[in-house]
Amino acid sequence: MSNRPGRGIGGWSKVLLNTLYIIPLTFPCGCRDITTEAPVIYCRMGGNSSGPRSKPHRSQMSSTETSSGSTPFVTTVVGSLPKPAWLYEDTAMSEKFKELHGQGAAWALSGEALHEAQNDAVRVAIHDQERAGIDIITDGEQRRKSYVTYVTRKLDGLDYETLAEKWVRGGRRLAQVGRCVGPVTRRGPMLVQDLRFAISEARSPLKVTMPGPMTVVDSILDIYYRDERALALAVADALNQEARDLEAAGAAVIQFDEPLFSRYPEKVSQWGIEALDRCIEGIEVETAVHICYSYPMPGVPRPIVPSYPEILPEVEKSKVRQVALEFEAPALDPALLRLCPSKTVIFGCVSNGSEEVESPEHIASRLLEAARYHPPEKLQAAPDCGLVTLGQASARSKLASLAKGAELARQRL
Question: In the chain, N or C terminus with fewer CB closer than 10 Å?
Fold first, then answer.
């Protein structure tokens, strides 16, 4: 039996048992997808472990526990994880009709069977993260075909029946996109039920992700506002309403994904930060913005624009508390962290562009190098971006290596 004192969130610690307590791996839809070498259970240190196991609620956790606080190199993920083959058709992200923006690959099931299978996929994603030793988790975005349209299709004013072609991501690709045809408003909760389900299945704090306003603006054709800032602020108001409901439902971290900050650094200062701050108005739980260089796609160039030096001073002025940055794949210099001294940095030290698994030693080395320029208690260890582009086996191994690497880095501080 092994445990890691002081790492449990809300007083909870992970305990690995090799012979006791077998986790059932047959889910309601009949899928079997994972094996368990060392099943994971949870107990409250110093307490009586007999009887039913209760789960810590977000309100029982301090803000330092969910951001990083006094613990260096807390581990987390950016958002997505691979979907099981029994859930979703595997289609290359570079395909023109892939639903990054409008249409795309199909679910393997439909109706109630799909709903139950998505529930099972969320359970698998939670199990994978908790078993690996990740401290702050997500639902793996298992219900989403697209991190953008899963949210934007639930907003009024956006039309996905009649699509348009648009060059997106700084001219990186021509995509089929929805159209803005009227005032953008939130018609009702979009992610709240997803969060509640994940909380009911998890023992770790939950992060929820939404596309940020600039990314939404780039992902639709605006024929109503005809003004990027006006559209972005309308989107931000809708996202803020959702964020308030997510906070009330128990989210530990609310993150806005803004890969487009790296493509349009001049817009970040013009209206990007204003729209981002509008998203988090009135929010008291931890807030984050994720800035990367977009998902790698087969056959599609992914230019690494040296925009962090221009972006990070602007992000430093924002009200958001955490910033998730891509450092591993582009091999960026951690000295850039000097540009955002007040933020908790979610430091990308695992690539989502290669199936090759980074060693714990390499991850520890990168984290300790980052700690030369940023307080280690304000550094979190994470992948560069979502891991949906990888196979499940590779993603699981990368998460396990991430947790081990963060532990090595803590030992060597």
Answer: N
